[in-house]
Amino acid sequence: MKKTLFFYLVLMCCTYMVNAKNIDVYPTNWWVGMKTNSIQLLIRSTGEAFSSDAVTINYSGIKVLKTHQFSNKRYLALDILISPEALAGTVLIETTQNGKKQKISWPLNARRTGNGTEYAKGVTSADFIDLIMVDRFSNGDPTNDRVKGMRDQSLDRNQMYDRHGGDLQGVINNLDYLQGLGITALWFTPVMENDMMNRTEHGYAITDHYKIDARYGGDAKYKELSEQLHKRGMKLIFDAVYNHFGLYHFLEQDQPENDWVHRWPEYTQTNYREQPLFDPYGAKSDQKKMSNGWFDKIMPDINQDNPYMANFLIQNCIWHIETFGIDGVRLDTYTYNDLNFANRCNAAILNEYPKMTIFGEIMVHGVANQAYFEQNNIDTPFKSNLPSVVDFQSLYYGIIPALTQPFGWTDGVNKLYYTLSSDFLSKNAMQKVLLLDNHDEPRFFSVVGENVEKQKIGFQWLLTCRGIPQLYYGSEVLVKGFKAPDGLVRSDFPGGWTTDTKNAFTGKGLTEDEKSTQDLVRKLANFRKKSSALTTGKLMHYIPVDGLYVYFRYDDKHTIMCVMNTSDNEKEIDFQKYNERTDGFNSAENVVTNEKFASLKKTTIPAMKMWILELNK
Predict the structure, then answer these.
(1) What's the topology of domain 129-243+305-533?
(2) Which CATH architecture fits 14-110?
(3) Rounded to an integer, what distance in angstroms lies between the CA atom of residue 535 and that of residue 526?
(4) pTM over 0.90, yes/no
(5) Could you read off the pLDDT of 518-550 as tens digits, one per residue?
(6) pLDDT tens digits for 224-255?
(7) Catalytic residues
(8) Assigned CATH for 535-616
(9) Burial environment of residue 545 by CB neighbours within 10 A (0 to 12, 13 to 18, 19 or more)
(10) Which H/E stretch holds residue 345?
(11) Where in the chain is the domain with CATH 3.20.20.80?
């Protein structure tokens, strides 16, 4: 009898102390010493349903505030408060599942050092960003090209919408090239797990916010890349997606409730129109369709009015910054989010990381439309706190028409002048991210009719205008392509695969035009690093005359004169016309060609040419 009782007590004790299996906690960990210390844990059983909402934590410095139940009994939400006195360690969360008490180990870590100095440094006008699609850049580890158990097993470089095998090891292998090109920050399209059936190369249909995709090398390789970048003084930008996730995300396949994404009686797509959000005459139904409609049938539209979903997203962004040492955050499809949620999220990030740079994808038409979604000088009922944007206006209504339209009162390079003149709407135009192309836009080389000189003018403008310049991988060697029908806009970087006959990393097989364009970017980007005028200086420009556009970047130490001739004829440059900025200087040197101008009198610039002149006393 005594033996029987003893074995019964041992069995009960083992049942009580067993670590819970098939239970996940989100966030997967947190840190001591964070300003963000009121956390909502989402606890999910991937096995049996919870039979009780009884959850306890016996850990010094952690207080359980509230437990939330859902109609799906496999989920619980737990509000906790982490006191400043709490120490790093393993927190045991005790739950009851089918009458059995189980313990979940949840890490509470010491946070990384160097907030604002070693990471979360922010991205500024002194930086030069390279936007890279990891799957299309370089295959550094062929063993992860396919991962057993994942839905998308495609691997065919001849098919533009299949996977091609690029990974984070491929990026690490080529950091010398990127840094030598003058790049200071890397922004990747999302690298989180995309366990979808197909079209997973772009990364925007996330299926697990807390996993780096194994086909890119997983969490460990992403951490290694971050460490390598920071050792070089470079920065890492995180692409956050709040508006939608992939259809196979566990929060859609196994919903806690039916209102974590926007539901419609039948499939309803967004109208892709931002105007109803600020139009004084707009219809509420149009506004709802814009914000709550789905991007695609495979991308459920997230309901950010749901407080649990909102907490999940905000905590996840902070988790990524702290876990991987992020320096800047790019926010995808910003205009489609609930804007009050977006303000709350921006505030939470900046509260924890005051030097963090946040810039939103505002793919709209019209400078005022764009300004509405950023910190602005407009008197409107809604005020955005978004610090910066991707400046599509200077692309659509600036540099593209400048190089593709004949000059006119409102056409050609005048459009670029008008667009930049509207910077008074923005709080901080120097934080706008400039671009010539990206993963959603046609390659600039194709847009300008594969004209090499126009491509070079585009790069010279990109690296001398106000704001933060952003390169799209491969454009420096004239990669071309439109979005449709072939999708070549997302072509592989030449030399990223061992079988490539052309290698842009080494120069092997490049044409003279490709080499000269790459050399221009490299030379100008590295010159820019040392030029206070180009990185932090003011901008002054003059009204374009007959296709000739002149602007200056300057400060007390340095003056750069930029002359863009967009006409079909050579143009005279009379330096005295610009004496507000040229007075006191007596010579100049072309930064790109090293041509010297012994005096600042009159000269001529050839047709369709741009000069970047460093003025000297």
Answers:
(1) TIM Barrel (3.20.20)
(2) Sandwich (2.60)
(3) 11
(4) yes
(5) 999 999 999 999 999 999 999 999 999 999 999
(6) 999 999 999 999 999 999 999 999 999 999 99
(7) 332, 361
(8) 2.60.40.1180
(9) middle
(10) helix 339-352
(11) 129-243+305-533
